[in-house]
Amino acid sequence: MTSSGPRSSGVTIYEVAQRAGVSIATVSRAFSDGAKVAPATRDAVHAAARELRYVPAAAARALAVRRSRALGVVLPHIDGPYFAELLVGFELAASELGFSVVLALDTPHTGRPSTVLDMLGRVDGIAFMARSAAEDGTVREVAALRPTVSVARAHVEGADAFYAENRESARRLTAHLIDHGRTRIGFAGTPEPGSDIGRRYRGYLDAMTAAGLRPGRHHEITPVEASGTALAEQILAEPGDLDALVCGNDEIALAVVARLTRGGMSVPEDLAVTGWDDTITARYLTPGLTTVRQDVAHLGGLAARRLAARIDGEPAQEPVTVASTIVRRRSCGCPDPAPPTASPTKESS
Fold first, then answer.
1. Is residue 17 part of a domain?
2. Same structural domain for residues 106 and 185?
3. Does the pLDDT at position 59 exceed 70?
4. Same domain, yes or no, for 178 and 135?
5. Which residues does residue 74 pair with via DSSP β-bridges, in sequence order?
6. Are residues 317 and 215 in the same domain?
7. What b/e readout covers 146-160, taking b as 16+ CB neighbours within 10 angstroms?
8. What pLDDT, on a 0 to 100 scale, did the predictor assign at position 300?
9. Domains in the chain, number
10. Is residue 1 part of a domain?
11. Residue 171 φ then ψ, to 5°
12. Percentage of the chain modeled with pLDDT above 90
């Protein structure tokens, strides 16, 4: 049985200072208040710490003491419905198991890998959610010290991995657009390696290749509302380039449909649009948004339960994939599904 306790390399602050070519006081400031250290110096200290697998003293002391009954979650941001659902599912499962949740926002561009390292002393295990939440190297370092799981990102050795099924559903979704007679189909979203959107992009390419079609324009944009609106502005300025657009998530798709509609374009007549996530807004948008439903809250709950099991000493398991379902609405050319009918009520006598 794998131990859940820390594995210390015995690296000291003096060694980190020597490797980075700075004083120990500078190393201390880089971890306690990075804003007071020049960016280049701070980056050198963090790089040295990563290379030596150094854990700040406060966290190292906490690693040796009793469990905190807390689970850490690392996210790139908390904007949009996807991360909200993921976090709710995780927190509900953690609460049922008697754990609290500590949240940290971290991306490869913050210049502060210590955000995650500082969390180590306050939690019993950490879940990394989405590709842009910390570098893979940071995930490997944490997995060597604490039970670790990842959600919707490339599998890292030592960490349990959870995914929603993406590639095959994206292939079938794109093939459905082709069945509607669409041949100039573009893709919107940045396909980072190992990410959900990366797998969706591969599925889109699979369908285009199978149909003997050349992929349409690929708009590499971040999966947020503002990017979708900006893309719609571009489409309005240059109409006719595409007859369908596969969006990496609902947030992009909803913004595109709303802005195109206001700009006088008709969806799906002028441009068919699909999303991903089946958010509540997708059901009430006009036209209704064709999308892919995945139980994101369930995914978050699975990650929390698995992290708790790892803390109890269970070894890492093979990656787990949760099924996805295509939901067809009018934005792709299908008729909107009929609204549910209310059950008749009997009058009281």
1. no
2. no
3. no
4. no
5. 104, 128
6. no
7. bbbbbbbbebbebbb
8. 95
9. 2
10. no
11. -65, -45
12. 53
Biggest alpha carbon distance in the chain?
89
pLDDT tens by residue, 253-272: 999 999 999 999 999 999 99
Share of the chain above pLDDT 70, in %: 84
Residues 191 and 229 in one domain: yes
pLDDT in tens, 171-198: 999 999 999 999 999 999 998 877 889 9
Q: 165 with 112: CB under 8 angstroms? A: no
- Look at residues 59, 50, 70 and name the one whose alpha carbon lies nearest to residue 6: 59
| Average pLDDT rounded to a whole number, residues 47-51 | 82
CB 257 within 8 A of CB 285: yes
Dist CA 156 CA 336 (whole Å):
41
Q: What is the DSSP code (8-state) at residue 331?
A: G
Domain assignment present for 12: no
Same domain? 84 vs 191: no
DSSP state of 152: S
CA–CA dist 184, 239 (Å, integer): 12
On whether both 59 and 113 belong to a single domain, the answer is: yes
